[in-house]
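4.2 Preliminary Data

To establish feasibility before requesting continued support, the project team ran the inverse folding procedure on a target of 270 residues. The structure was first converted into the token representation described in Section 3, and no sequence information of any kind was made available to the design step. The complete token record follows.
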């Protein structure tokens, strides 16, 4: 499934460029100049932090997102050696390209660097060069099994209705765009407003604001005055109102069969 999800992200670029365009997916990525490896626990920590702070722009898998480029095909990443090139960019930002600066300590930055290089190594091992998702890749599911998952274990019916917001879905989206919308609901849409969050410290009243980032260690919020505030998640209680979070959480839960079965079910909603 991970390979198919990666292809979906890459092929989105092909569709945006138009028929016959030579996308990065049709070319080999630049090879890593200095091969490097990292401890699994450092990569895992970097994955969580990257998803919360970088994933919106660069994709949760570093393969490109709404506004940020595919880092696994970045020349800067290919030439980086343990953060010597990635680090300055992350900390200083690229204002002219809309990338903010990030105030990270060495451990946090090192974990993100480890995750990016781990993702690049995986992409290089695939060999690259495939520029499309073939129809047989998508149409292998069972619609009835997808209906059962939609209404049961997947929890999709808690927010969506085949006779409500999803009426005629398969008439509006077909093939790859339908699967992209299912997996990444922000695809092709304006950037959503940051999720609202309420944080209650062990001593003090609740503080409401907009979520900046969250992982298993910290939560960062912009409060009503515009100030950025950070807490250790173990020291506070908090609730996050983000209607899209269930889609992103689901990416780690889908099996191959689940994903194809739900897609097959959505194709029946005409």
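Position-by-position output of the design step:
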């Amino acid at each position: 499934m991970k390979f198919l999800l990666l292809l979906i992200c890459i092929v989105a670029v092909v569709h945006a460029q138009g028929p016959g365009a030579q996308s990065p997916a049709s070319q080999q990525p630049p090879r890593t100049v200095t091969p490097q490896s990292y401890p699994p626990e450092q990569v895992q920590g970097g994955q969580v932090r990257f998803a919360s702070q970088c994933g919106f722009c660069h994709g949760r898998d570093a393969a490109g997102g709404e506004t940020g480029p595919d880092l696994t095909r970045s020349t800067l990443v290919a030439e980086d050696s343990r953060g010597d090139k990635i680090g300055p960019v992350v900390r200083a930002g690229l204002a002219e390209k809309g990338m903010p600066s990030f105030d990270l300590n060495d451990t946090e930055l090192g974990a993100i660097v480890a995750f990016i290089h781990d993702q690049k190594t995986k992409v290089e091992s695939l060999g690259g060069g495939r520029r499309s998702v073939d129809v047989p890749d998508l149409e292998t599911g069972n619609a009835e099994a997808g209906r059962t998952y939609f209404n049961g274990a997947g929890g999709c019916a808690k927010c969506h209705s085949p006779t409500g917001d999803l009426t005629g879905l398969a008439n509006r989206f077909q093939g790859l765009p339908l699967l992209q919308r299912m997996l990444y609901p922000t695809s092709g849409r304006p950037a959503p407003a940051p999720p609202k969050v309420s944080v209650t410290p062990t001593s003090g009243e609740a503080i409401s604001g907009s979520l900046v980032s969250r992982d298993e260690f910290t939560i960062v919020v912009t409060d009503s005055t515009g100030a950025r505030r950070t807490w250790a998640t173990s020291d506070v209680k908090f609730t996050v109102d983000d209607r899209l979070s269930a889609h992103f959480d689901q990416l780690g839960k889908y099996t191959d069969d689940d994903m194809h079965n739900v897609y097959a079910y959505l194709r029946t909603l005409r």
